[in-house]
Amino acid sequence: MELPNAFRQETARPGSRDQQLTMTQASSSPAADGTPRFDPGVAHPARVYNVWLGGKDGLAADRKAAEEVAAHRPQVVAGARANRAFLARAVRYLAGQRGVRQFLDIGPGLPAPGNTHEVAQAIAPDSKIVYVDNDPLVLAHARALLTSSPEGACDYLDADLRDPEAILREAGRTLDFTQPAAVLLVAVLHFVPDADAPADIVAALAGALAPGSLLAISHLTIDFAPDAVASGVAAYNTLVPAGITARSHAEVTALFGGLPLVAPGTVPVTEWRPDHQVRPGQSADLYAGLATTGRPR
Ligand SMILES: C[S@@+](CC[C@H](N)C(=O)[O-])C[C@H]1O[C@@H](n2cnc3c(N)ncnc32)[C@H](O)[C@@H]1O
Q1: Spatial distance between the Cα atoms of 101 and 94, rounded to a whole number of angstroms
Q2: Are 231 and 36 in contact (CB under 8 A)?
Q3: CA–CA separation, 198 and 94 (whole Å)
């Protein structure tokens, strides 16, 4: 498959940042060692997740990985959907109750119902969203993430979460980090192993935000079914080279680095400000939380 290199597309009133749909590149493509970043025979996190969500963009390797993990932990499918529902609730809360108009969504995955810009701009059409992902297939589909309302703006960065400085620099072309913003790290930090210091990455992002900003995290855990989830994680890590690290409640909370947590704190993803009755026994192997941030000025 021919994949596009990063490109920039300007629409509507040329020259107006508010009217721009842009795609920019903050990371090297192909990979730094010169190898192509897209191999259809290898499963990728965004596409495996897409299979669990019921999407059609997974390739054979992705479907195999998705099915293998689900054989160990069938709840992974409900978990993926519960996570997606958390994303929508969090964005509605941020736009509706916190007045946030700028969103940095890192690891958005393949376009799916309820993309951040759709949820945010349904509440506040002038919202600006920058999406960041390191999967070339997400880049190839990113036009669907760039259907901004005329009043707002959408941007896409082909970049890696492990380089927060590059992300902040490039995202600053669309977002004004002197004003409140929300950073969304929804089901992405579990792709960062301890060796890559995920808490430092969160701290670097949080430290760049203005007062009134917030940071959302959802994260895989084995806490609710240690044996089944651990074997699902092992299967995933055999089939998906990116690999995944499940973390405990204390470890997920620690990723916030002591930032003040919005009630109800770090909780199972289905219990974070649910907009429906959570059924007893309804489980998803993720924690979610949202913290306020913003350096004093
Ligand atoms: C499970 S999907 C989550 C999608 C979306 N946030 C949601 O919750 O519905 C994880 C996404 O994170 C991306 N990702 C994983 N590691 C990444 C990294 N180091 N830098 C940027 N994106 C990454 C994957 O490519 C994938 O699109």
Answers
A1: 8
A2: no
A3: 23
Task: Single out the residue of 164, 121, 117 nearest to residue 22, CA to CA.
Answer: 117
Ligand 1: atom nearest CA of 84 is 9
Identify any residues that bridge with 24 across adjacent strands, giving them in sequence order: 157
**Residue 286 CA from chain centroid, whole number:** 14
In the sheet that holds 213-220, the strands lie side by side as 9-10, 20-25, 153-158, 128-133, 102-106, 182-186, 213-220, 286-293, 267-268
- What pLDDT is stored for residue 24 in this prediction? 54
Token code pair at residue 208: 């760049």
Angle between the N-to-C axes of helices 76-97 and 45-52, in degrees from 0 to 180, rounded to the nearest 10: 100
Distance CA 103, CA 91 (A): 9
Report the amino acid identity of residue 40: P
Question: What are the sequence ranges of the domains in the chain?
Answer: 77-293
What is the tens place of the pLDDT at every residue in 17-44? Answer: 333 334 554 443 445 444 456 778 899 9
Residues of the chain with pLDDT under 50: 1-22, 25-30, 32-35, 297
**DSSP letter, residue 241:** T
Can you name the CATH fold of 77-293?
Rossmann fold (3.40.50)
Dist. CA 297 → ligand 1 center (Å): 32
Render pLDDT for 213-235 as a digit per residue (tens, 0 to 9). Answer: 999 999 999 999 999 999 999 99
C-alpha to C-alpha distance for 144 and 110, rounded to whole angstroms: 9
Ligand 1 atom at shortest distance from the alpha carbon of 110 = 27
pLDDT for the residue 39:
77
Question: Which residues have any ligand 1 atom within 6 Å of their CB?
Answer: 45-46, 49, 83-84, 87, 106-109, 132-135, 138, 160-162, 186-188, 191
CA distance 116 to 129: 8
**CB neighbourhood size of 12 (10 A):** 12
